[in-house]
Write a structure and sequence with these properties.
The complex is a heterodimer of chains A (65) and B (570).
Chain A lengths: L6 E2 L17 E3 L7 E4 L5 H12 L3 H5 L1
Chain B lengths: L2 H4 L11 E6 L3 E7 L5 E4 L8 E2 L2 E4 L2 E4 H5 L9 E2 L25 E3 L2 E6 L8 E4 H20 L5 E6 L5 H13 L3 E7 H10 L7 E8 L4 E9 L2 E10 L4 H20 L7 H18 L4 E10 L2 E8 H7 L1 H17 L9 E5 L6 H10 L5 E3 L13 H13 L4 H7 L2 H4 E4 L3 E7 L5 E7 L7 E9 L3 E18 L5 H4 L16 E20 L4 E8 L5 E7 L6 E5 L11
Helix pairs in contact in B: 3-4, 5-11, 6-7, 9-10
The chains are: A alpha+beta (65), B alpha+beta (570).
The complex binds adenosine-5'-triphosphate (ATP) and magnesium ion.
The site of adenosine-5'-triphosphate (ATP) has 21 residues of chain B, from helix 6 and helix 7.
């Protein structure tokens, strides 16, 4: 059956794995690589929503409200 | 100008009606949103939806479109065409060598103009390219108004990706002189993409838009992310287009004519103009039928001419030109640092995109998973001549109610120039035998902020680690067994001029995790559907959630924004 959902094998949790303080099931390992500045073409409905969010400094979820 | 009309408050009672315009050197189109909300290209009073960008004057009467273009034979001096790319340019920067039968460009106050008899008077007038553009746009606007019965006041115009500020400014001024307010300019390839995406598909994809026109060909490689478009690379050839193909046929037929009559029809201006027009018609016919006949009364020195050519012959004669289109596209993909395998869609736009062989060549250039949208390779292709106007009309409908200031702010680099993540973000998974692979959640070249969710079904059981990483696509080449010498012997026409003739290789895309960002642990049952959401903020901080599909709660984690780098970009 191809429902578009990939079947995947996750690696097992290693012995002695420790989460971040206050978050036993998560640990941060690194930060995002430096971004590249590019221009988004100012066209289409999705861009207009993006521009509205950016101009008003809103996040996705704030925008959805 | 038009202080009252263009001011912040639209005149009461007058319905704002915006259209989309595609304005090419060869053809123009106008489009609007029909009552059912679908963008459609409008026919002018002659019934043409592809309107030649031509004006012609006979005894002071102005002809436009098809009627004007047909004047190229009898009245070439007072017929203007192929002028768009002269707008907003210094005369010194253009190549004024006459290459078309139409009125030749001339220098006027450092800009380009034409000397034409556009009134009943015998003395010609010097008419600037800006004024010609105004007249052309006025006719397009009038056609749209006549069609819809509403007064067209404004438009979105599609322009090439390499249009300079001087050019767009000149075009905006020329439009204003035609009482047409340009709401916005949008890039032609983006307009073409929007015409396709209006069918409801906004999936993330890498797309090549190849706009193959009359005088020029323009390529854009575009990352489409969440319905937003970033151009990764462009390529242009200002000497490659439908006219190049017309020339192949002109030369072919001229040679046939010489064989018969020992006269070269290309030596006479009027004969050449006739031959060009008819060769173009034959070329278009060959896009649909297996053969086409050129028939010209009194081609040169009173001799009529009739000659038939089949498609195979044409494709042979034009083979080199066809290859140039392929090469231009290949180069653009390379310039974008991509592999041909990365391209999911190729959209062929522009009149020359009707040519079956060009589309077929691209079909074999790209992978079998790539859809080539052209009339001859895809049953769902949209007429390539209509794409730019259609996209412009969609944009016009989206912004026609906006205040001028709103549009200006939204299109300003402060908004449009934005950080894009250079690598994909996703989950590292196990492939066979200890090797790892990577499932993309957010593709590379996505603009931030961005939020994406991915569902995966687990094949593993127990306490697992969902490792969020940056990942990169690699091309894996697997050499197939070398074919035996005996087998290859005597095989003269090998596929391509590849260096390693005896080695066949299978190339495929694989994903590799390159940098871990964080880990989530969870107890997972085999068959469980796990939903991972990655949210990258405008400051590049990341929040991640993983939960069972449909569950209310799950594990959350946050990754801090990176330290500012030396160039201050992060
Ligand atoms: N059915 C067809 N088959 C082959 N070529 C076609 C067909 N229809 C139109 N063309 C060619 O397409 C070219 C015009 O393309 P288009 O309408 O996209 O022009 P344009 O964008 O105005 O061109 P440019 O600005 O490059 O001069 C012409 O050379 C024309 O002969
Ligand atoms: Mg064009």
């Amino acid at each position: 059956e191809d429902d578009g959902i990939p079947r995947v094998r996750f690696p097992p949790k290693p012995e002695g794995w420790k989460g971040d303080p206050g978050n036993p099931n998560f640990r941060a390992l690194g930060t995002l690589s430096p971004p590249v500045m590019r221009k988004i073409e100012p066209a289409g409905p999705h861009f207009l929503a993006f521009a509205r969010r950016k101009r008003h400094g809103r996040t996705f979820s704030e925008d959805e409200r | 100008m038009n202080e009252e009309v263009d001011g912040a408050s639209p005149t009461e009672g007058v319905e704002q009606y915006a259209i989309g315009i595609s304005f090419g050197n060869s053809n123009s189109s106008i489009a609007h949103l029909s009552a059912d909300g679908k963008a459609e290209v409008i026919a002018n009073e002659e019934g043409d939806r592809l309107i030649p960008s031509f004006l012609s004057y006979v005894d002071g009467e102005e002809f436009h479109g098809t009627q004007a273009k047909s004047q190229l034979v009898r009245n070439s001096r007072n017929t203007i065409g192929y002028f768009r790319d002269y707008l907003g340019k210094d005369f010194k920067s253009i190549d004024p060598t006459p290459c078309h039968s139409s009125a030749h460009p001339q220098e006027n106050a450092s800009t380009v103009a034409f000397s034409i008899q556009d009134t009943e008077s015998e003395t010609p007038n010097t008419v600037s390219v800006s004024e010609i553009t105004t007249r052309h746009l006025r006719r397009l606007k009038q056609s749209a108004s006549d069609f819809s019965g509403k007064a067209v006041t404004s438009a979105v115009i599609a322009i090439p990706t390499d249009a300079s500020e001087a050019q767009t400014e000149a075009l905006a001024n020329a439009a204003e002189n035609a009482q047409l307010n340009v709401l916005q300019f949008i890039s032609e390839p983006i307009a073409a993409l929007m015409a396709y995406d209006a069918r409801g598909d906004h999936k993330d994809k890498l797309v090549v838009v190849a706009d193959l026109g009359g005088n020029r060909s323009d390529i854009a490689v575009v990352a489409s992310r969440g319905g937003m478009y970033s151009i990764l690379a462009t390529g242009h050839d200002y000497e490659l287009g439908g006219v190049t193909l017309d020339q192949v046929l002109v030369d072919h037929f001229a040679k046939e004519f010489i064989k018969k009559h020992k006269i070269d029809p290309r030596d006479n201006e009027r004969s050449l103009a006739k031959l060009k027009l008819e060769a173009e018609a034959v070329k278009k016919a060959l896009s649909l039928s297996a053969s086409a006949t050129l028939s010209v009364e009194s081609l040169a020195e009173g001799f009529d001419f009739r000659s038939t050519i089949n498609r195979t012959r044409y494709e042979l004669l034009a083979g080199k030109v066809f290859q140039s289109f392929t090469r231009l596209i290949e180069e653009a993909v390379k310039k974008a640092d991509l592999d041909l395998l990365d391209i999911e869609e190729v959209i062929l736009s522009g009149g020359t995109a009707h040519t079956p062989k060009i589309a077929q060549n691209l079909k074999s250039l790209f992978s079998e998973h790539t859809t080539v949208f052209a009339p001859s390779t895809s049953p769902t292709a949209i007429n390539p001549g209509f794409l730019a106007a259609t996209g412009a009309a969609i944009q016009a409908s989206l912004i026609q109610e906006f205040e001028k200031e709103d549009i200006e702010q939204s299109t300003h680099p402060m908004v449009t120039v934005t950080p894009h993540i250079p690598n994909a973000i996703g989950i590292e998974i196990e492939a066979q035998e200890g090797t790892s692979s990577f499932e993309v959640v957010i593709p590379q070249d996505s603009a931030v902020p961005v939020r994406k969710t991915k569902v995966m079904q687990s094949l593993s059981d127990g306490e697992m680690v969902l490792r969020v990483c940056e990942g990169q696509r690699k091309i894996k080449t697997t050499k197939l067994e070398q074919r035996s010498k005996a087998e290859t012997n005597g095989e003269e026409d090998s596929d391509e001029d590849s260096d390693v003739e005896d080695e066949e290789a299978v190339r495929e895309r694989i994903w590799e995790a390159i940098k871990p960002l964080g880990e989530i642990t969870a107890k997972v049952k085999k068959g469980l559907k796990v939903e991972v959401t990655v949210n990258v903020g405008a400051d590049l901080s990341i929040s991640i959630t993983a939960r069972e599909l449909g569950a209310k709660t799950g594990v959350r984690g946050n990754i801090e924004k990176p330290e500012v780098t030396e160039n201050g970009q992060a």
